[in-house]
Amino acid sequence: MSILIDENSRVLVQGITGSHGQFHTAQMQAYGTNIVGGVTPSKGGQTVLGVPVFDTVREAKAATGANVSVIYVPAPFAAESIMEAADADIELVVCITEGIPVLDMIKVKNYLRGRKTRLIGPNCPGLISPGKCKVGILPGSIHKKGHVGVVSRSGTLTYEAVDQLSRAGIGQSTAVGIGGDPIKGTGFLDVLDLFNRDEETYAVVMIGEIGGSGEEDAAEWIKANMKKPVVAFISGQTAPKGKRMGHAGAIISGGKGTAESKNRVLKECGIDVAPTPDKIGETLIGAIKRAGIYEKCLIK
Amino acid sequence: MKIHEYQAKELLEAYGVPVLKGFMAETPEKAREAADALGGGLFVVKAQVHSGGRGKAGGVKLAHSPEEAAEVTKQMLGMKLVTNQTGPEGKIVRKVLVTEGADIEKEYYLSVTVDNEREGFVIIASGEGGTEIEETALKHPEKIVKEFVSYETGLRDFHARYTAKKMGIAPEHHKAFISMLKGMYRLLIEKDCSLVEINPLVTTKQGQLVALDAKVNFDDNALFRHPDIVSLRDVNEEDPKEVEAGKYDLNYVSLDGNIGCMVNGAGLAMATMDIIKAFGGTPANFLDVGGSATTERVTAAFKILLSDPHVKAIMVNIFGGIMKCDVIAEGIVAAAHETKMSIPLIVRLDGTNMEKGKEILSASGLQITPASSMAEAAHLAVSAAKEGK
Question: What digits encode the pLDDT tens for the residues A96-116?
Fold first, then answer.
């Protein structure tokens, strides 16, 4: 098993006719993702990469039975795209777009309340259930099918961690990039809960960074609820205060959200923390060996 | 994006928030004219730099005549203001704000900002405003009061009324306070501010409620829809290397070490700084070159890194993923040629076509050391920087 996406996911691409959308649609198709259609207003009726393009999400869903949508729409229009997908009751919406205004995201989040749509992102690499389905921009080749869940606020640092796991013979059930924005659809806690309930996930790697309190909240939740080993890494130990480090959400403000305090809370909650980013794989292996599930996690 | 106090006050005034009258001046003559126009016998000359803590650093001075205002301005312009927020390098004063004086009865703190966790807004206030607000927040957190404002309601009179009571604002000021706070909120919403702050907000002995100092910050992601706000930008207040990086869509932050870093992705870029520090080196910067490390962007990035005289070695850490390593390697070699790279360049490339990438780097004839992992690259960079000293 895996979480959120699998071989049954029917994926729609919003912004399929743009260069970014087209490039990654081709990449997803090459990975085996079932892309059922695309949406670009006023381009309905065209065919791109062998799939039909629609003007609206509702039309696309009615015609294709899509249950997942991935968004490559430019930032000024992305919030509307998310709301359109939610309006059409798409179950899972993955927004790759970076740079959406905070007030737009507040509007989106308030609209999503009480609806059945789950949003991943924005400003994220998407997610992948190796061997089954990839939605987003993650490189498929480094991922191996297996039993470790990965959840992260970063893109390339996730690839780094996944690569360390794969090289050590440890496969992944699903890797989820939740994104680097301060206001996002799905946080660490939601993904950890899904991994906790997924029978095929035996352990989890969580990659956080400075800013906000998502890691601290997750740590407390893990201590109280998690039945599987979790290891963590927090980037930004050397980041100066008050400076935004690339991601909109990666900022230490008013002395809050430092890597130091996150690491302390994680350790207090019994979670192994990788001291440096090259030791993420090693730290996970240590934890699963102690739990007696190392053999079970190895790629057969 | 940040703006100056005088600009923040102009915006607030446009939203119905009472501010002390004042004029910006870039010369002593203009300061004298400003004081003349204001009239009265007491003026405050305030250095306009993007930093708090100006008063304690000597950036706020009183004057009792237009002549004195001009004299004080003359001393202040060109001076390097080192506050508790600027770092030791300080900021050069290029503009001052000349305002009328105020007969202060009591100081308060008042701000409106976004509440990320609750996906709404929050009013943060205190009955004890002024320069000590940060210390108050640390030592007496109970004196900082908060009022959550949901997205659905927006900021209503009742939010303001609760806030006024919690702050201890006298009933006769409530009407003015409510109108002021709603103006601050409207500014936040209409101009995509990340913070609208008045500190101090004062009541005067003449019975007025007025903003003595103000700070307004904006969400960079929303600037595309506010050309009027973009025009308020003062690049003199920003790190020149960060300004240059912005032109190429590079995310760059200056640090004080000697190993230049170029990385794709913000998380990996922070992790690269961390590993350099863990291995005994010091990073000179944070630099996220973004998803498409093209020759043009890599060249721009190298130029910015090399413009820092402290940089003794450069570590490139690229996890290619979908991007092909041979293409990136060609870009790096071309950029190194163009910038006449003369310091050790350690390059870690991972992802598709990694081996081909390494071959291109080795065959370049340049002083490039390929590394197989982030850890190896960090070790090499740290020792190269130590030798380079």
Answer: 999 999 999 999 999 999 999
Rounded to a whole number, what is the distance in Å from the CA of B43 to chain A's nearest CA?
A: 32
**What is the 3-state composition of chain A as percent helix, strand, coil, each rounded to the nearest 5?**
35, 20, 40
State the Cα torsion A211-A213-A218-A223 to the nearest 10°.
120
Q: What percent of chain B has pLDDT over 90?
A: 73
Provide the annotated active-site residues of B. Answer: 109, 197
* Closest Cβ opposite residue B275 in set A139, A239, A278: A278
For residue B265, the chain A residue with the least C-alpha distance is A156
Return the residue of B nearest to A213 by Cα.
B117
> Complex ipTM, two decimals?
0.93
**Residue B355 binned pLDDT confidence (cut-offs 50, 70, 90):** confident
DSSP string, B191-255: TTEEEEEEEEEEEETTS-EEESSEEEEE-GGGGGG-HHHHTT--GGGS-HHHHHHHHTT-EEEE-
CB-based contact A137 B268, cutoff 8 Å: no
Burial B277-315 (b: 16+ CB within 10 A, else e): bbbebbbbbbbbbbbebbbebbbbbbbbbbebeebbbbb
Strands (E) located in chain A: 11-14, 35-39, 47-48, 51-54, 68-71, 92-95, 118-120, 126-129, 133-136, 145-152, 172-177, 203-209, 230-235, 272-273
Count of residues for chain A?
300
Of B119, B277, B319, which is closest to A237 when you measure between CB atoms? B277
Instruction: Kindly report, residue by residue over A187-237, the tens digit of the pLDDT.
Output: 999 999 999 999 999 999 999 999 999 999 999 999 999 999 999 999 999
Look at residues B99, B179, B112 and name the one whose alpha carbon lies nearest to residue B148.
B112
For B360-381, b where at least 16 C-beta lie within 10 A, e where not — what string? bbeebebebbbbebbbebbbbb
Contact A110 B152 (CB under 8 A): yes
What is the residue type of A31? Y
Closest A-chain CA to B51: A242
Least CA distance to A152: which residue of chain B?
Answer: B267
Query: Given an 8 Å threshold on Cβ–Cβ distance, is B194 in contact with A106?
Result: no
| Mean confidence (pLDDT) of chain A | 95
Per-residue pLDDT tens digits for A10-20: 999 999 999 99
Nearest to B119 among A110, A235, A254 (CB): A110
Flag if A238 and B266 touch (Cβ within 8 Å): no
Among candidates A138, A238, A242 on the partner chain, residue whose Cβ is nearest the Cβ of B277: A238
Task: Please say if A247 is a catalytic residue.
Answer: yes
- Weakest-pLDDT range from A206-210, B145-149, B262-266, B366-370: B366-370
For residues B229, B231, B234, B235, the Cα torsion angle rounded to the nearest 10 degrees is: 110
Contact A153 B267 (CB under 8 A): yes
* Mode of pairing for the β-strands spanning B96-100 and B43-47: antiparallel
